[in-house]
Amino acid sequence: MHTLLKLKNARKVVSQLGAARPGMEVLVLSDLHTHHNVEPLAIAVDEAGASLNLMQIAGSARHGRQLSPVVAEAMQAADLVIALTRANAAHTDARQRATRAGVGVIVLPESHQPDFFLAEGWEADFDALRPQIEGLADALTRADTARVTSALGTDVRMSIAGRRGRALHGFANTTDISAGYCLESSLAPVEGTAEGVIVVNASIPGVSLIRDEPVRIRLEKGMAVAIEGGEVARRFRDLLASFNDPLVYNLGELGVGMNPRCQLDGTMLSDESVYGSIQLALGTSAYIGGTVKAAAHYDTIVTDATLELDGRVVLQGTELRLDGEAAR
Question: Which terminus has fewer CB within 10 Å in the chain: N or C?
């Protein structure tokens, strides 16, 4: 696919979301799966007048695998890191250390797709959506409890007391990641508190879209104790079992997708961003405000659901209700 077709949104990553400018050191971290998408970013960095640094790693198809100390040092030496990788670099020590060192980090998982920079999600109005995303993140921070329900049978409760809501609005910052057009408000639930059932009707990014039988996940004391359903449930069970780590069953994240330009398409950034979708992830939470470091982090996506915070409905389907006002 021609580089010129990708350049518009590569420029958006570098200049709008990354605010690259002369005097900045920009590190583009790629892997053997994503090399074909490096050129548009390199051109955009050069156009912005920033210093371009390229680094390639072998890469992995599994989300949550740690990066090497060499990569970690390079990330901390930059002003802006764009992690153009197949696996998600967000849930790694290297990313967390870079953020704590004051480096802006934009993670772009599953960017091995040839049409990655042509995704509809890039057409979001990032500036206009930012207040909604930050508003819901603030509501999550203020709340002590959360409950997610759906007509298909999801009913899960958890404590979120003392946890900071995250506003993933796309713009690079020194508090948390940017994930490109993956826009969400989220947090790590308090470990050991989630109880109930998740009926996954939309997607498990990295595994499959849910086209037929939903996946039922039963939670007790914050851990998934049963994963039931059809073929997708079997594949998810097998994947988690392959890590040989009991902590991959921890309920590690509660989030809400906030990008109205995204639709379910089987990719991580799009599926997790569908406006009004609920993310309930298993595995690592340590890099988003929790305490669990597991061998992996996999989201499950529920749509047509209701989110209550401290007993008050803040999201019903695609209707967001903050401070008595509804937004869609």
Answer: C
Number of domains the chain contains: 2
From residue 266, give the alpha-carbon distance in Å to each of 166, 203, 207, 244, 259. Answer: 24, 7, 8, 25, 15
Whole-angstrom Cα Rg for the chain = 19
**Which of 278, 296, 281 lies closest to 238 in space, CA to CA?**
296
Q: Do both 89 and 146 map to the same domain? A: no
pLDDT of residue 184: 98
User: Both 145 and 70 in a single domain?
Assistant: no
Q: How far apart are CA 146 and CA 161, in angstroms?
A: 9
Residue 63 has pLDDT above 90, yes or no: no
Q: Among residues 75, 92, 70, 83, which one has the least CA distance to residue 110?
A: 83
Domain residue limits at 48: 3-118
Cα gap 199→187, rounded to integer Å: 20
Please identify which residue in the block is written with the tokens 């690259």. Answer: 20
